[in-house]
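In the present case, backbone shapes were mapped to integers, as reproduced here:
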Amino acid sequence: MTDPLERLKALQGADLPVHGGRTLAYVYDCGDPEVDRVAREAVAAYAASNALDPTAFPSLLQMENELVGFACALLDAPDSAVGTVTSGGTESILLAVQGARDSRPDVVRPRMVLPATAHAAFHKAAHYFGVGAVLVPVGPDFRADAAAMAQAVDDDTVLVVASAPSYAHGVVDPVTEIAAAAAARGVRCHVDACIGGWVLPYASRLGRAVPPWTFAVEGVTSISVDTHKYAYAPKGTSLLLHRDASLRKPQYFASAAWPGYTMLNATTQSTRSGGPVAGTWAVVEHVGDAGYLDLAGRAFDAVDAIVAAVEREPALHLVVQPDSTLVTLATDGSCDPFTLTDELVSRGWYVQPQLSYAGGGPSIHLSVSAGTLPHVAELRDALSESVAAAQAAGPVAVDPGVVAFIEALDPAALGDDDFDGLLAASGLVGAGADGDLELPTRMAEVNAMLDVASPAMREALLVAFLDRLQRPVRGGRP
């Protein structure tokens, strides 16, 4: 019989590396193996624990309260502030929206005002909770237009949102002005600092210019901050902080309307593994405030080096100067961005392509970690080589027939045959021996096809793609 742990290692061989500083999306690497060891041992020690009932596992409650206390100090929270440990940034955002909605039972058709750059998790919350999303265009610097957002607030608005920073461009919104406008109308203001919340405070201490965004800004009522990002903790934890307990109360769910135990939850989950909580607590304890200041310094040194490398390449330019650890770059007409992405991936650097949106062209996103710093010279060389290769390959052209096919379809009314045709045309489905989906090794042509599609068509195509991916393996493993 095959050792399952050996099989796990074999399966993992096809995954992106989570260490080594070369995966510039999805994972955050501090570059210290000891942090990884501490996290793994703590997760394993609490893998069977259940954070559902804090009276059954009081150690988890203690760890959660200590994590919230650390974050409160980091984010200039008042003594009245409270917080909750969630499973990730999306759950923190979902709870912020749900709590805002339920705090206003008098509003029949609740709405929230978002900059167009707000994270897609807010759209997910709108879909789940029936809260209308009012999207406000951002300024030429990709920051929220505070005046336009203030004008969009009305009597049905239950939440106003700002980002610190926005994911796609890495810039901090004018939180002071946005929060003031929300407060003037008696509306909650949530700051999505999921990706920046654990690193921007240290950026300020390092002397970098960061616009105000924490609880020190009057009118900010809640902040989400992910510990699995720049706290370098295991996946599966985030924090949602509220300025005071009364703001958090609508987030809770309780039900005694059945014959079992009275259900009481602070999050959308009931059963929650204690593993991620313990792993996060252990990492924060191990690294500490001084350690995070050092890690932030390394991450920002890497950002500065990458920015300099981009500026040295005539075919590349920054979309905007980054406020945080996110770098977004674009290409000129001589270099196809999707081919450039493939070339970087082929050289061991995973970067994330971003498609055209609202008149803006495609771009390339990098989430930079402390673990990237020792390798920035390698990245600089890979970038130069990849630009040259992309220029030599030339632009990726989408077949006019495929474009016409896409434009003629209604994404809301597509059948299975239409989906199959689109998947085949996109290159997302190969000719497997049994008609199975085969992932392409290079994505430039796929991304170019997606780029000419409308956002609604992109969603429809990728939903079909995910549906094809998630099919059971029958009759045992292959």
Observations:
- The longest strand covers residues 157-163.
- The longest helix spans residues 274-311.
- The two ends are 14 Å apart (CA to CA).
- The domain at 33-285 is CATH 3.40.640.10 (Aspartate Aminotransferase; domain 2).
